[in-house]
Every structure is written in structure tokens, then in C-alpha cells.
């Protein structure tokens, strides 16, 4: 009876799974509306819940334009008593915000089959990292966040992950302003506290560290940094068309992954063949009186051959992933640059956050601004 029940459970699970995958293949998207901030169901259609969409836009703006940390955004929303997507709490967490910042549904798309049921008995859901097909539906529903902004957020998330503990969200210049002498970040400091001469300046965080040569790069005020950036930006925009054309050439080169794809496929074939040879060797050994030393030697050779192919394939997959990330970075840069004003006379925080990767402060108070496409301009 237990075996019959188990088989029936397996059959039901397979039927449900088949039904879901058939639905995915047709591009049918399901929404967990009750736990999804910003959308609702109306006349069997996905529509924007305007009041909630304001919160989503605020989260994206605070992260991308204001440079706030995810923890800082969580604390801010909690203090404002804003309800979380579940609607049952006002206590925001990093996981909740990470999910909102990385969810492609906010740009109007839908990635289907992000997870799958690994075992029909336990019904345990696991993340799909390539074990089964995924389906991507573009422009499935109205977007709350425009595509370029969403892509910019993904690039900024990757940049902050790379910086790790070095990232600071104390101000918009933190984690972007770099000391020429030591390569450390600049930080905001308050001078003459509790006096009428009190003011904020930016200086190298490692300027007075013991056991190292003293950095001779200068202190800078907010206005000095902003003035330098406006100068550099206006110089850059005089060459706007050339920069966009050059970047598009780079995008074309990064887009072509044909050689990498072919090498990855060849290595996959090599792994399949090697696996078959290993299985055949094991089978032959079980049916004959093969010399065990000879068997061990052949087995180790095939295992080594498989591991080499696997490791090489992983390296190539990483290289392809890096090319795709660079391509996305360049495309987003072109989109942001194209939309930017040809000239600015006032400080623009949004342009600073969207276009600048880093800014190196020199001893003569000049600053070299490195844009997200790798272009550098000194002011």
C-alpha cells in the first residue's frame, strides 16, 4: 500500500510539473500578488498598484542615485512604518530589498522556472542554476522601473559586491573617490566640530595610518569635487558622439561569443565521452579478471581527463559570463549617456551615480574621472 501511494504521489507530481513547464514554454507568467510589491490583478491582467509602485521607485532611487546601502534603505523604510511586500510587517530586511532590486519583473520581464522541486517526496524547492530549462519573457507586463535604470542597478550591485566591506554609503562620493598615493578611498570628515567654523571635507581614509608613508593628496570640499566633475563632464560631452560610437564597437566585440560557445560545447562532448569510457571501464572490470593496478591506472587517467575538461569548461563559462557583464555595462552606459544633457551648469547627482565608476584625486588637486565604459577625463 505504501509503494502504491508513493507511486501515485510521484505520478501526480510529474503531471503537475509537466503542466507547469508546458505553461512556461508558452510564456504564461504567474504572479504571487499577495507578496509582490507594486502589482495587482485586475480583469485577469497584471496592472501596476500605483501607491506601492511609489515605494519600489523610492527603493531604486535611494540605492542607485543616492548611493544608500541596502541596510540603510531597510532602516529608513522601517522608520517610516512602510509595510513590507507581505503587508503584515513594517520591519524591512536586506533579503527583501535584494529581492526587489534584482527582480526582473520590475522592468516588465519575467524569468520563468527560477526554482524547481528536487524531490517529489519532500517537495523541496531548490534554485535552478542550469539543471532544467528556464524561459525568459520580455515586455510581459507594465514596467515600474525603466529598463536602463534596472540594468544600472544590477551593475551597481556587482560593483558593491566586488568592493565588499570597503563600500561605504556615508555620502555620494564614498567608494568612488580614490587617493592617487595609496589607492585608498576618500571619506567625509568634520572639521572644527561644535564651532562656527564647522564644515565637512573629504580626505584619504588612510592619510594618518601608522606604519605607512603619509599620503600627500589634498583635502577637498563638496563644492570643489562638484566643480571638477561639471568641468570634466562638459569636456566629455563635447566628444559625445565619438564616445558612443567607440563604445558600440566594443559592444559588438563583446557580443560575439561564438568561439567561446564552441569551445564550451566541445569540452562538454569531451566530458560525455570520458564519462562513457569510465563507465565502460568499470563494467569491463566487473566482468573480467582485469589486473587491478592496470585498472586503477586507467581509471585515474580518465578521471584526470574528465576533471581537466570540466575545469577548463568552467574557466571558459566564467570568461563568457564576464564578457556578457561587460557588454551589459557598456550598453547601459551608452543608454545613460545618450539620455544625459549635452551640458550642465549645476551639480547633477543622478549623472554622477550613473556614469562615473571612480574618480582619482591627484596631488595637484586635479581629479581623473573614470566613466563606466573605461573612458577617462582629467579636470
Tag the structure with descriptive keywords.
379 residues, alpha+beta, Hect, E3 ligase catalytic domain fold, 2 domains, 4-stranded mixed beta sheet, 10 helices, globular
Q: Main sheet: which strands, in order across? A: 7-10-11-12
Distance between the termini: 80 Å
The average pLDDT value, as a whole number, equals: 84
Helix content: 40-55%
Shape: globular
Class of secondary structure makeup: alpha+beta
For the sheet with most strands, the description reads:
4 strands, mixed
Number of strands: 12
Radius of gyration: 27 Å
Stretches with pLDDT under 50, minimum 5 residues: 12-19
Number of domain units? 2
Strand content: 5-15%
Number of helices: 10
Q: Give helix and strand order, one letter per element, not per position.
A: HEEHHHEEEEHEEEHHHHHEEE
Amino acid at each position: 500500500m505504501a509503494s502504491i501511494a508513493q507511486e501515485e504521489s510521484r505520478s501526480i507530481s510529474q503531471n503537475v510539473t509537466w503542466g507547469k513547464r508546458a505553461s512556461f514554454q508558452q510564456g504564461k507568467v504567474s504572479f504571487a500578488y499577495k507578496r509582490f510589491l507594486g502589482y495587482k490583478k485586475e480583469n485577469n491582467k497584471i496592472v501596476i498598484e500605483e501607491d506601492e509602485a511609489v515605494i519600489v521607485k523610492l527603493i531604486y532611487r535611494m540605492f542607485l542615485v543616492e548611493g544608500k546601502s541596502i541596510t540603510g534603505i531597510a532602516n529608513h523604510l522601517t522608520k517610516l512604518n512602510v509595510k513590507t511586500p507581505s503587508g503584515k510587517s513594517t520591519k524591512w530586511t536586506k533579503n527583501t530589498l535584494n529581492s526587489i532590486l534584482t527582480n526582473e519583473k520590475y522592468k516588465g520581464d519575467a524569468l520563468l522556472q527560477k526554482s524547481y522541486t528536487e524531490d517529489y517526496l519532500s517537495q523541496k524547492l531548490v534554485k535552478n542554476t542550469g539543471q532544467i530549462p528556464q524561459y525568459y519573457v520580455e515586455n510581459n507586463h507594465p514596467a515600474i522601473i525603466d529598463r536602463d535604470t534596472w540594468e544600472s542597478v544590477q551593475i551597481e550591485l556587482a560593483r558593491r559586491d566586488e568592493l565588499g566591506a570597503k563600500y561605504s554609503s556615508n555620502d555620494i562620493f564614498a567608494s568612488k573617490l580614490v587617493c592617487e598615493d595609496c589607492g585608498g578611498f576618500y571619506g567625509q570628515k568634520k572639521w572644527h566640530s561644535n564651532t562656527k567654523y564647522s564644515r565637512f571635507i573629504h580626505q584619504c581614509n588612510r592619510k594618518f595610518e601608522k606604519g605607512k608613508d603619509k599620503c600627500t593628496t589634498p583635502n577637498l570640499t563638496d563644492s570643489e569635487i562638484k566643480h571638477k566633475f561639471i568641468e570634466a563632464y562638459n569636456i566629455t560631452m563635447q566628444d559625445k558622439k565619438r564616445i558612443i560610437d567607440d563604445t558600440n564597437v566594443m559592444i559588438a566585440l563583446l557580443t560575439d561569443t561564438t568561439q567561446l560557445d564552441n569551445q564550451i560545447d566541445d569540452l562538454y562532448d569531451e566530458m560525455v565521452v570520458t564519462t562513457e569510457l569510465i563507465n565502460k571501464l568499470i563494467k569491463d572490470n566487473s566482468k573480467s579478471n582485469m589486473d587491478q593496478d592496470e585498472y586503477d591506472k586507467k581509471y585515474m587517467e580518465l578521471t584526470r581527463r574528465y576533471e581537466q575538461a570540466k575545469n577548463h569548461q568552467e574557466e571558459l563559462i566564467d570568461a563568457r559570463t564576464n564578457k556578457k557583464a561587460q557588454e551589459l555595462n557598456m550598453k547601459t552606459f551608452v543608454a545613460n549617456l545618450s539620455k544625459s544633457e549635452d551640458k550642465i551648469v549645476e551639480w547633477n547627482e543622478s549623472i554622477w551615480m550613473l556614469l562615473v565608476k571612480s574618480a582619482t584625486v591627484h596631488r595637484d588637486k586635479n581629479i581623473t574621472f573614470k566613466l563606466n565604459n573605461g573612458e577617462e577625463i582629467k579636470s
